[in-house]
Amino acid sequence: AHLFEQHVQPAWRAWLALGGRAALPFAPFVRSQRGLPTDAPLLPPLADSDSNNDSTNANNNNNKRSKTSDSAALEARVAAARSLYAHVVAVFDELRDCRVFEIMRSGRHRGDYLCGTQARIVAMTTTHAALRRDALLELGFGFDSLVMEEAAQVLDIETLLPLLGQTRPARLRRATLIGDHHQLPPVVKSRALRRAANYEQSLFARWVRVGAPHVTLDAQARARPSLAALYAWRYSALRTLPAVNARRSVQLANAGLACTAQLIDVPDYNGVGESAPVAHFYQNLGEAEYVVALFMYMRVLGYPAASITLLATYNGQKQLLRDVVDARCAANPLFGRPAAITTVDKYQGQQNDIVLLSLVRTRHVGHLRDVRRLVVALSRARLGLYVFGRTSLFAACDELAPAFSQLSAACPSHRLALVRNERYGACERSADDTSPDERFEIQGVEQLGALVC
User: Fold this and answer.
1) Least confident of 64-68, 124-128, 231-235
2) Phi, psi of 310 (to 5 degrees)
3) Does residue 438 sit in helix, strand or coil?
4) 434 near 410, Cβ under 8 Å?
5) Can you tell me whether residue 154 is helix, strand or coil?
6) Torsion sign over Cα 294, 298, 301, 305
7) CA atoms within 13 A on the CB side of 405
8) Which range among 4-8, 36-40, 360-364 has the greatest average pLDDT?
């Protein structure tokens, strides 16, 4: 600031006072900034092409020019000089902004400065916005637009706090909430608040319920049409964009697998179905072994591990899947680990090409009876969805019937249908061809395990 105010500005004013005939005072600096030679011209000439651009030509008397042309040349020089001076001012403005970082030593203070003065887009979670609300108010943090993703899974208070996160007068002009009230609601651990007060209903869902103006997307571009049909019944006139059908990966079948979506029945494994080592920690060893065996089979065919996700409907099964993968696959580079092993609830908002889903329960349907959780489970896959569970239990559930009737129709025997002599990346079979000559069905997890070995 001192250099600019005490040297640069006075030199610029003095040059203007001379009417643009003197040498530009900061010409060397501009040349160095732009990587120009030391004698490169920066301003239009006063007389002819032999005159110096940055100094007054001592031999002006030798060039007879009209007053009009001389005035035009001076105006051109001053205009060009003003453009160069604006560049110099911008450099010093940037230096002034950087000066703050020399004074602020902590990363937190620097972040607060950038957030309050420089940032054009600030991203944070609703929880962080609530925790830091007082600090943001002290900074005078303001914003004109607010976009909230997964708003249907956010509590009322967590939605309101970001909306009120400004000092008066507030600058907020528009708020856009994006979400899907047909999927999982916010998590509320208190049963009294959840059921008696309906506290698990998000502000997004409330606005939709009372008829507030909103836009509903009626087209999807994520999954195959056959996969989208599994949950399209929950939406009004959901269609698939034409660009999806034009994708080569959508037109072709999944190599080595007869169907793009299938429900596989898993009977008791060694006489045991679901189990719970501790309360509500449900596990199913048979399904875990079956899911991991199919993952290994797909890896042998060449599927990338990053394109496969293993999902479970309970935390206990998630942990069991991880244990089986650690024991069977992790140490072998041929198999490795899938992209994710997690629960349906945690995987909301994410997706992958292939999803292997374990339903776990064999005595009761459990919390999958909540159709919103079913929609999340069925909508995570782009190219292939393979569901492992007790068919007689889930197919008989009225709430799940629209989806499970379609899954059952793909293979009424509910046995895993595979295709011989196909490799990932070299399969030319159409996705509609679910009964090729090389098709065969797996009788159980033991047979699939033997096939992989």
Assistant:
1) 64-68
2) -105, 120
3) coil
4) yes
5) coil
6) negative
7) 8
8) 360-364
Q: What is the pTM of this model?
A: 0.75
- Which structure tokens are listed for 17? 């006072």
Tens digits of residue pLDDT in 238-288? 999 999 999 999 999 999 999 999 999 999 999 999 999 999 899 999 999
> Which residues are within 8 A (CB) of 107 and not within 5 positions of it... i.e. 6 or more apart?
none
Q: How far apart are the C-alpha atoms of 25 and 202, rounded to whole Å?
A: 63
DSSP 277-300: SSTT--B-HHHHHHHHHHHHHHHH
Q: What are the tokens at 193?
A: 């608040």
Residue 357, classed as helix, strand or coil, is strand
**Which residues are bridge partners to 220 per DSSP?**
240
Q: Is residue 242 reached through a cis peptide bond, with omega within 30 degrees of 0 on the bond before it?
A: no
User: CB of 352 within 8 A of CB of 309?
Assistant: yes
CB contact at 8 A, 327 and 289:
no
Spatial contact of 165 and 142, defined as CB atoms under 8 Å apart: no
- pLDDT tens digits for 43-57? 777 654 444 444 444
Determine the average pLDDT of the residues in 343-369. 95
